[in-house]
Amino acid sequence: MVTAGVIGSTGYAGAQLVSLLVNHPHVSLTYLASHSYVGKRFSSIYPSMEGSCDLVLEEEDLEKASKRCSVLFLALPHGLASKLVTPEILKRCVVIDLGSDYRLSDASVYTQWYKCEHGSANLLKEAVYGLSELKRKEVSQANLIANPGCYTTCSILTLAPLVAENLIDTTSIIIDSASGVTGAGRVEKTDSLFCECNESFKAYGVTNHRHTPEIEQELSALAGEKLIVQFTPHLVPMNRGILSTCYANLKEGVGEEEIRAAYMKWYAQENFIRLMGSTLPETRFVRNTNTTAIGWKVDPRTRRVIAIGAIDNLIKGAGGQAVQNMNIRFGFAENSGLATSVVNPL
Predict the structure, then answer these.
(1) Residues with catalytic roles
(2) Could you tell me the pTM of the whole model?
(3) Residue 40 CB: number of other CB atoms within 10 A?
(4) Tens-digit pLDDT profile for residues 109-120
(5) How far is CA 98 from CA 66, 214, 297, in A?
(6) 150 phi and psi, to 5 degrees?
(7) What structural domains and CATH numbers belong to the chain?
(8) How far apart are CA 242 and CA 263, in angstroms?
């Protein structure tokens, strides 16, 4: 059994992670921290977990937690994890950071997009970007794993085969993504209030969303050259889910056959990727699962491919992918404790 702890356990991503860990066959959940609810039982914050997780919430203390846990999950706002993680902690336990502090390999890019200094830039060289399907070998050897963002996971997995197989003009990539309201976190914000987002659909973070450099970093590595994408996120009045619609111009001679072959080459054997071909994904197809559903259409009139990916932002986009990374790192079956199919198809 692996002893696990979660710091920032009462936010949406942290709570989703807790619900997965308490049902994991190889995990003993021993430490939960939440600065806002110290001394309260986890199940008093989330009554649906009564009897499943009644641990008392403790103060956030990485030093103490690293001595009690073999794996420690951090679900904290940006700027905090980088001030708390140390080389000594990483010698004692594996750290899987669900936040953004270790996702970008260049500290100056982090400062530019997050408007704060990185607290442990010396550790960036040790951090592995934990997009499980693309970094499996690196994850298996890492003690500091940067869990990717939700928009990022969906966008990169949807585009990766097309970029890596040189099927598209990488200067033409446009990504329109839509997220459920849980993507904004559990902190009270006017924009997330029911009356502000219900019966409405809006773009936000236009030209400056912080997941943009993540997408560019990872797709550039696959392309073998620096690339820039146009990424626009949107807010949808639903609880959970992300749908990414990705557009790109096709290279000369590339058509449906080449696109399909690329997706099959990269993902046919992947447990958590469902290739749907011309049947386009919907968020309800993956709700409450760790699956990424991907479909595509080739438009011969415009010579473009439109690739569409769908994930559950709290599972494959956060807690589920963190568990998948833990499974890889500790040598468990990759699907341990994770669902791949929806319980209710409606």
Answers:
(1) 150
(2) 0.96
(3) 13
(4) 999 999 999 999
(5) 16, 14, 32
(6) -70, -50
(7) 2-126 (3.40.50.720), 151-311 (3.30.360.10)
(8) 20
3-state SS string for the chain: CEEEEEECCCCHHHHHHHHHHCCCCCEEEEEEECHHHCCCEHHHHCHHHCCCCCCECECCCHHHHHHHCCEEEECCCCCCHHHHCCHHHHHHCEEEECCCCCCCCCHHHHHHHHCCCCCCHHHCCCCEECCCCCCHHHHHCCCEEECCCHHHHHHHHHHHHHHHCCCECHHHCEEEEEECHHHHCCCCCHHHCHHHHCCCCEECCCCCCCCHHHHHHHHHHHHCCCCCCEEEEEECCCCCCEEEEEEEEECCCCCHHHHHHHHHHHHCCCCCEEEEECCCCCHHHCCCCCCEEEEEEEECCCCEEEEEEEECCCHHHHHHHHHHHHHHHHCCCCCCCCCCCCCCCC
Express each pLDDT in 78-104 by its tens digit: 999 999 999 999 999 999 999 999 999
Could you give the angle at the alpha carbon of 25 between the alpha carbons of 319 and 65, nearest 5°? Answer: 60
Amino acid at the residue 124? L
Average pLDDT for residues 201-225, to the nearest whole number?
A: 96
Give the pair of three-digit tokens for residue 201.
């659909």
- Give residue 250's identity as a one-letter amino acid code: L
Judged on CB neighbours under 10 Å (0-12, 13-18, 19+), 301 is exposed
Average pLDDT, the chain: 96
Rounded Cα gap, residues 167 and 182, in angstroms: 34
Going 98 to 345 to 21 to 92, the CA torsion angle's sign is negative
- Each residue's pLDDT tens digit, 10-59: 999 999 999 999 999 999 999 999 988 999 999 999 999 999 999 999 99
The answer to whether the beta carbons of residues 220 and 276 sit under 8 Å apart is no
